[in-house]
């Protein structure tokens, strides 16, 4: 299942606005920046994977993992937020579970997640 393109931040000015006007929290593998935007119905996110992470294969792998994390938790993310996820230098050594735990901890700390994940169905 793909994420709709309207959830992606594409313009450099949006990234710059989140950086200058928003707040950020740093984790072990990620830095999460967020800015509330009133006219936004859902949420938008952008990814930054700098050249220090490694070659293009490594950077693209990190981007795929981060998109999967956002896709898996998109129902929990509060509407009206623009967020930028920046991969730190340790990210290439992290597993999907470690990246997801780091992202969830930062998102909860910043109140980006509106509700607890749904309980698994009873057998």
Automatic annotation (TrEMBL):
Keywords: Endonuclease, Hydrolase, Nuclease, RNA-binding, tRNA processing. One of its GO terms (molecular function) is ribonuclease P activity. The keyword Nucleus does not apply. Signal peptide: none annotated. InterPro entries: Ribosomal_Su5_D2-typ_SF (IPR020568), Ribsml_uS5_D2-typ_fold_subgr (IPR014721), RNase_P (IPR000100), RNase_P_CS (IPR020539). The keyword Cytoplasm does not apply. Its EC number is 3.1.26.5. PROSITE patterns: RIBONUCLEASE_P. It catalyses: Endonucleolytic cleavage of RNA, removing 5'-extranucleotides from tRNA precursor. Belongs to the RnpA family. RNaseP catalyzes the removal of the 5'-leader sequence from pre-tRNA to produce the mature 5'-terminus. It can also cleave other RNA substrates such as 4.5S RNA. The protein component plays an auxiliary but essential role in vivo by binding to the 5'-leader sequence and broadening the substrate specificity of the ribozyme. Consists of a catalytic RNA component (M1 or rnpB) and a protein subunit. This is Ribonuclease P protein component. It comes from Prosthecobacter fluviatilis.
């Amino acid at each position: 299942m793909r994420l709709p393109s309207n959830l992606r931040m594409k313009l450099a000015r949006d990234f710059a606005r989140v950086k200058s006007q928003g707040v950020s929290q740093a984790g072990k593998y990620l830095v999460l920046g967020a800015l509330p935007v009133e006219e936004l119905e859902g949420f938008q996110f952008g990814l930054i994977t700098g050249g220090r992470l490694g070659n293009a294969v490594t950077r693209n792998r990190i981007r795929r993992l981060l998109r999967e994390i956002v896709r898996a938790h998109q129902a929990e993310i509060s509407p009206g937020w623009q967020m930028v996820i920046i991969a730190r230098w340790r990210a290439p050594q992290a597993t999907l579970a470690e990246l997801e735990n780091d992202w969830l901890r930062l998102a909860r700390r910043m109140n980006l997640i509106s509700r607890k994940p749904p309980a698994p169905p009873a057998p």
